[in-house]
Amino acid sequence: MRLGRIASPDGVAFVSIEGSESDAAARSDGPGGGSSRNHGGTREGRDAIAREIAEHPFGTPTFTGRSWPLADVRLLAPILASKVVCIGKNYAAHAAEMGGEAPQDPVIFLKPNTAIIGPNAPILLPPSSSQVDYEGELAVVIGRPCKDVPAARAKDVILGYTVANDVTARDQQRHDGQWTRGKGYDTFCPLGPWIETELDPADLEITTELDGEVRQRSRTSLLLHDIPKLIEWISAVMTLLPGDVILTGTPEGVGPVAEGQTVSVTVQGIGTLSNPVAAKR
């Protein structure tokens, strides 16, 4: 199932996104995922339908009977997280480009949920930063409350997977020595375009484009700590709640964005998340 969150003339709703043309777009293996008007960089499916889910998408969703053509609604961030847990330096090549060795154990940090935005919402550059970088990532969405989850049972607590951009004020990250300020600005956690619940994340291509030029290209098989290990590690520290998001780390090729540019992150089997970049006024 493909789970999303939309704004329609009737309000905001969780939905199941259905339709063969939309499915083909989300499965696109190439960067950019084709052209789009408003669906996060994926091609619009003329026959795709957003079916309203009653209450929330956890467990076995039930439907209200209402639906809208996907082309007639606006995709929002697909989930409302209580927290976003991020993993630093989880690709060896990215650790090297940042000037250090890969850590032996997962390094975790948090983004506030106020940093979350959806497809096509602008990333706002804070005037206090001189370098804001993109970091394309695969994100995991938690499906039920959990604590002390062994890696062998990690799949049991996962709702699905989406695309993320761990936007970072790199100068402030270096200056502070800890990462909360540089990672935590409003708009610094784009998520979307939807959550894919039926996906094997072990070896997916992940690509980041800046204004159509490929800047990052790697595969999730190169993660130093895989998703089951990450869930075991994080849940030993904190309780994870339904809707919480884990950003699994970015590959090499990170770099700065500027006002007027567009950054697009594609994860094979999910789709493309695109966001324009604007200066905060």
UniProtKB/TrEMBL annotation:
Keyword Metal-binding attached: yes
GO BP, one annotated term: carboxylic acid metabolic process
Residue ranges occupied by any Fumarylacetoacetase-like C-terminal domain in the UniProt entry: 83-277
Highest taxon listed in the record's lineage: Bacteria
Every Rv2993c-like N-terminal domain range: 1-78
Region (Disordered): 21-44
Keywords on record: Metal-binding
SUPFAM superfamilies assigned to the protein according to its UniProt record, in alphabetical order: FAH
Entry-linked Gene3D superfamilies: FAH, Fumarylacetoacetase-like, C-terminal domain
Annotated GO MF terms: acetylpyruvate hydrolase activity; isomerase activity; metal ion binding
Keyword hit for GTP-binding: no
Ranges in a coiled coil: none
Protein name in the entry: 2-keto-4-pentenoate hydratase/2-oxohepta-3-ene-1,7-dioic acid hydratase in catechol pathway
Organism this protein belongs to: Nocardia pseudobrasiliensis
